[in-house]
Amino acid sequence: MAETGRLTKVATPAPAIAPVTLLRVAIILALLAIWEFLSHSGWLYRDVVPSLLAIGRAVVELLTHGEYYFNLGVTAAEVGFALLIGGGGGVIVGIVLGANRFLAKAYEPYLYYLGPTPKIIFFPIMIMYFGVGPESKVALGTLSCFFPVALSVTAGMRSIDSILIRVGKSFRANSWQMVTKIYLPAMRHPIINGVRLGLGVALIGVLLAETKLSNKGIGFLIIQAYSIFDMPRMYAMLIVLFVLSIGANALVGRLGGLHTIRRI
Amino acid sequence: MSAQAQKRASFADYAPAATGVGTVLAFFLIMELLVQTGMVNRFIVPPPSEIIGSFGRVIVEEHVFSRFLQTLIECLTAGVMLTVFGVAGGVVMNRYKLLQQACETWVAAMASAPIVLMYPLFLVIFGRSAWTIIMMGFLAALPPVILKTIEGISGTRKVLVNVGRSFNLTPSQQFWKILFPAALPNIFVGIRLGLIFALINIVGVEFLINYGGLGQLINDLAERYDLAGTYAAICFVILVSVLFFMVLEKIERWLRPVD
Amino acid sequence: MSDTPNNAILKADHINVRFETAEGPVIAVDDVSFDVRPGEFLSVIGPSGCGKSTLFNVIGGLLGSYQGTVNVAGETINGPHQSIGMVFQEESTFPWRTVTDNVAFPLELTGMGKAQRIEKAKHFIGMVGLKGFENRYPGELSGGMRQRVSLARTLASEPKILLMDEPFAALDEQTRLLLGDKVLQIQQELKQTTLLITHNITEAVQMSDRILVMTYRPGKVKRIVDIDLPRPRTSEIVGSEAFGRYVAQIWADLREEASRGMREQEKHVMDEAPQG
Asked: What are phi and psi of C69, to 5 degrees?
């Protein structure tokens, strides 16, 4: 009894709100206040900084109209296909390069140095190949996400503990079983990480291509809002887009975090 | 005997690289054949020989050098801003732990958002000018610089911090003599990543808003339907970015203190 | 005691292994021949660098280039053989699979149905004493428990010969003794033919019917010692007088080899020194 009493005395009572939360709320409120002040000050060109109310109204407007969801679906499908083709190709190329030292020496430098080059500049070519429809956006997204996935799977293959490969061989696993039951599960972290990077660049590739030339998709809506100078709508779309993409990224990361197990 | 062994070793060293180069050459050769025999439409894919032929024309007629300079200046301006604001941001966030706890996840989240999609907004604010492009390159590349700076400073080995304490260093001495030098390698990595992101976004925005240096060149040639020229310009931009990337790597390795 | 080759379930015949290194070829295994009889527990013991792990890889079929032949139940092996089940020295459980799924792994490879293989895996999990841990991941287990998972996984493939390479090397002494008991108990229960590679004399004497002592580089067969201790055995036998005599006898053999190994390594270091 005395022990418990002493313990409670030592422990500092937890504040109702953590200081971090308090600071976060304060920062957000300050930013919003500055924003609102700027929008009413008239110092900036009309509508560059619309009032919070106007932005809020635009967000509601956006989310209550079916048109937005249709375009969101188009963009999501384009990104999905890009990830499927580019990411799938990246995984295959990564496994081959990671398993074969010779091929890795021959081709990995190209992947490594071509990876961080701007991909949007290929868009004119993609239009010539695939037309102005969603296909050219998928192609650009595919090209964008192939590199990070391939590079991270190559590195992942090399980091597989060789003992696990020997176990598989000792049980006479065939090549298909080696890939599906040893390589892929052993590389789940690098693969998920690659897919996360790939998702990010595929999204950017698809959206930028849509802003350049298209008649549907989120990128198209953004550039449309720009052309009619509907700033609140543009802010609303950027906010929703950022929330969605940050959420998708966190979701993929969470999936990869399952059964994270320490290894001695 | 040993000379022979050496010779064999050097051949084995070059074989993979030769295979890589050989594959690229074979690819161009096959494309050339396919286009020349009409199996691939030459109005979609110009023959590689024609692309190589138009290199000179593009370089001279399209003022590639001045465009390259323009893109480079935009990039370096963004780079200076990145270094100043990114490193300072990281240092400040590391100095005030509460601020770091509050904001680090926000910065990390921004790193995964398609920031470059804000370019129409910047177009409204800055107009079709170099500043739209520079600001886009700067903002899109800012998160990694901040994050790497924080990672570098907070990753300083505990024993080094204790060495500083044992000499009774003041907080500012502790920062300038211990923490900052220890964080430099990571900060360099952050700046290098930032410059690469900046280049990617700057060329991209140039292309998208049809203004400025190398990105606009590609847009221009594509709109004029100068097929071979477009391909040549794309090759040129890829070459420039690869060189930029290599030079940054070299500089980083050269600046990085041995540890 | 009949020593006819016909009786042997595993027969290694004139095994030679050479490695090319920067300083020229090294003979790792030099003309090693031996038999393993059905139900027998044979240990191969030798100092570090005697090529016993190389021998393990040859018999397991994981090493491609060697001279000589290995026969298992009358078949010459050419790659991993289904009659041989290997337990490795290193931590080798799959961290992404539960204990049950780890143990069921070899059954899954043969295409056995899910219900059946889980049933069978449970049996072997119980045998190594991990009942109640079926749904844990290896990361949640201790090193000794993980090594038991590896053992159960290999047993689940029902090999004719259990081939183990220092399976207890990474464990502390107490765990090693207790795990040795477990292995002995299972081996006696299943009448499991076992080939154990080890450098631990106590472990070898405690478990084996015969011990094959190898020389330091090049690895040759120095002597084969019959261990005539009563069965069933447990780790308690470690205290007996007969046990002590066997240990002393084998140590006398090994000591010579181990010190020769040490001398050669020291000489090697001395030769290298001026350049370094």
From this structure: -130, 150
